[in-house]
């Protein structure tokens, strides 16, 4: 920082490094006519070409934004300082520095070794890792035996009611044909199935020409 004394007043100046600043600006909420009229677009670009003849423009009509890319950050900073919040075609133009995104390596890197064991099957499991075995399903054979002895219309109480919980009862549906013994799959395939009920279409009302008024 350098300090100069002029007329009893001290003026401070700071050296700014422009190498770390972005070299592009984003113009937000530009007029919609800018994307249609060629003369208005020429006037818009002329404002920024005075700071850098090699400036490039990218128009984003859906977002009503324009990206202005300069050859260096110094020209972008000067254009932003001079043109920010100035009037253009009857509207205030707002300029912001474009944020640069640093992804790092251009190639997609694999996940870290300690994260790879979460993949099924793991690509590179850690030492001592073993595949977990599926739990054996719990089968209540007493329940299956009791239900198999039930006939149509019978019921079996699974859980007796308590003052705080209701009872759970299994009901066997009645046979539609009145036969308690259910036929095998082979018998069902041999017997013809009953025809499906015919869908009756709604009749279209009679057409009557409209009365012209």
Shape: elongated
Q: What's the CATH topology label of the domain at 24-97?
A: Alpha-Beta Plaits
How many extended strands? Answer: 9
| CATH H-level superfamily of the domain at 24-97 | RRM (RNA recognition motif) domain
What is the CA–CA distance across the termini?
87 Å
Q: Strand-and-helix sequence, N→C?
A: EEEHEEHEEHEEH
The major β-sheet equals: 5 strands, antiparallel
Helical content, roughly? Answer: 10-25%
Arithmetic mean of pLDDT:
75
Work out the strand percent: 15-25%
Describe the structure.
The protein has 213 residues and is α+β, with helices and mostly antiparallel strands. Helices cover 17% and strands 21% of the residues. It has four helices and nine strands. The protein has a domain of 74 residues: Alpha-Beta Plaits (2-Layer Sandwich), CATH 3.30.70.330.
How do you describe this structure in short?
The protein has 213 residues and is an alpha+beta fold.
Helix and strand layout, with pairings?
Blueprint (H helix, E strand, L loop, with lengths): L1 E5 L2 E5 L10 E5 L9 H12 L6 E5 L4 E5 L3 H11 L2 E3 L2 E7 L43 H8 L6 E5 L8 E4 L13 H6 L23
Antiparallel strand pairs: 1-2, 3-5, 3-7, 4-5, 6-7, 8-9
């Amino acid at each position: 920082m350098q300090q100069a004394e002029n007329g009893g007043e001290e003026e401070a100046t700071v050296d700014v490094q422009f190498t770390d600043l972005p070299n592009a600006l984003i113009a937000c909420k530009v007029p919609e006519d800018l994307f249609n009229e060629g003369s208005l677009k020429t006037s818009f670009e002329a404002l920024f070409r005075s700071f850098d003849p090699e400036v490039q423009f990218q128009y984003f009509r859906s977002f009503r934004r324009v990206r202005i890319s300069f050859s260096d950050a110094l020209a972008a900073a000067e254009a932003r300082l001079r043109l920010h919040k100035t009037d253009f075609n009857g509207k205030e133009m707002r300029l912001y520095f474009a944020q640069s995104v640093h992804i790092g390596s251009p190639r997609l890197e694999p996940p870290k070794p300690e994260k790879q064991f979460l993949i099924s099957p793991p690509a590179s499991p850690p030492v001592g890792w073993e595949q977990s075995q599926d739990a054996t399903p719990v089968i209540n054979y007493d329940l299956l035996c009791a239900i198999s002895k039930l006939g149509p219309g019978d019921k079996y109480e699974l859980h007796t009611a308590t003052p705080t919980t209701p009872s759970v009862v299994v009901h066997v549906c009645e046979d539609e044909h009145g036969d308690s013994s259910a036929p095998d799959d082979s018998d069902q395939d041999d017997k013809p199935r009953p025809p499906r009920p015919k869908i009756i279409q709604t009749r279209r009302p009679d057409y009557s020409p409209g009365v012209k008024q």
